[in-house]
Design a protein that fits this description.
heterodimer, A: mainly beta, 11 strands, 50% strand, B: mainly beta, seven-stranded mixed beta sheet, four-stranded antiparallel beta sheet, globular
């Protein structure tokens, strides 16, 4: 069973700053990784699939990279609506999440 | 635009069976290339995939829940259902129904979620 470990657990940043979130897999998963954003009281929303492809309607400030065991979600310049929890996912496994909070 | 809507009991007593249904609109549950899933999230915690069903009726369940879970599909009503037996307080969570692409298991549509509380 694949385990996905996300870091950091919490990221405190200001609007306009760059956010870098990490997801590490316990074994190689090629590029089969997705990222989701979840805001309080809402269902998650697909941001990135296949490690680096933006889902429909996702702004260009969101980008994903990586392959094998190490993956990164980057938000180039945080907008107020980007403060949320982010999860990575491979098959039926989700990472524990990274909360991006306002500093 | 595909929409998914969960319905069912919001309060279940310990040891009883949790039952939820997901109504799908704006698309057919019989479309190939997708699985129809249940995912849950305990309050303040992360996401846990419960299992999924294909339009063919074949299923896959999370091994940690397999002995208690049944997911079924009703194509005539364009809906699918979850039954989770012998519930405890640890099963208290927001339950989401969702559609995932067979390729990659990426979830592209989610229901709004429904909170199920296990309490006497």
């Amino acid at each position: 069973e694949i385990v996905l470990t996300q870091s950091p657990a919490t990221l405190s940043l200001s609007p306009g700053e760059r956010a870098t979130l990490s997801c590490r897999a316990s074994q190689s998963i090629s590029s089969y990784l997705a990222w989701y954003q979840q805001k309080p009281g809402q269902a998650p929303r697909l941001l990135i699939y296949d490690a680096s492809n933006r889902a429909t309607g996702i702004p260009a400030r969101f980008s994903g990279s990586g392959s094998g065991t190490d993956f990164t979600l980057t938000i180039s310049s945080l907008e107020p609506e980007d403060f949320a929890v982010y999860y990575c996912q491979r098959e039926l496994t989700f990472g524990g999440g990274t909360k991006v909070e306002i500093k | 635009q595909l929409q998914l809507q969960e319905s069912g009991s919001g309060l279940v007593k310990p040891s009883q069976t949790l039952s939820l249904t997901c109504a799908v609109s704006g698309g057919s549950i019989s479309s190939g290339g997708y699985s129809w899933s249940w995912i849950r999230q305990p309050p303040g915690k992360g996401l846990e995939w419960i299992g999924y069903i294909y339009q063919t009726g074949s299923t896959y369940y999370n091994p940690s829940l397999k002995s208690r879970v049944t997911i079924s599909v009703d194509r005539s009503k364009n809906q699918f259902s979850l039954r989770l037996s012998s519930v405890t307080a640890a099963d208290t969570a927001v339950y989401y129904c969702a559609r995932a692409a067979t390729y990659g298991d990426y979830v592209d549509y989610w229901g709004q979620g429904t909170l199920v509380t296990v309490s006497s």
